[in-house]
Amino acid sequence: MAYTIDSWGDFRDDETQSREPGWLSRLGELRVFAELGALAPAIPALLSAPRGDGHAVLVLPGVLTGDESTVVIRRYLEELGYVAHPWKQGHNWGPSRALHEKLRVRLSELHERYDRRISIVGWSLGGIFARELAREMPHAVRQVVTLGSPFGSDLSMDGSRKPDDAARRRIPPPVPCTSVYSRSDGIVSWEACREMEADETENIEVPATHIGMGFNPLVLWAIADRLAQPEGEWSPFDREGWHGMLYG
Question: pTM value?
Answer without folding.
Answer: 0.90
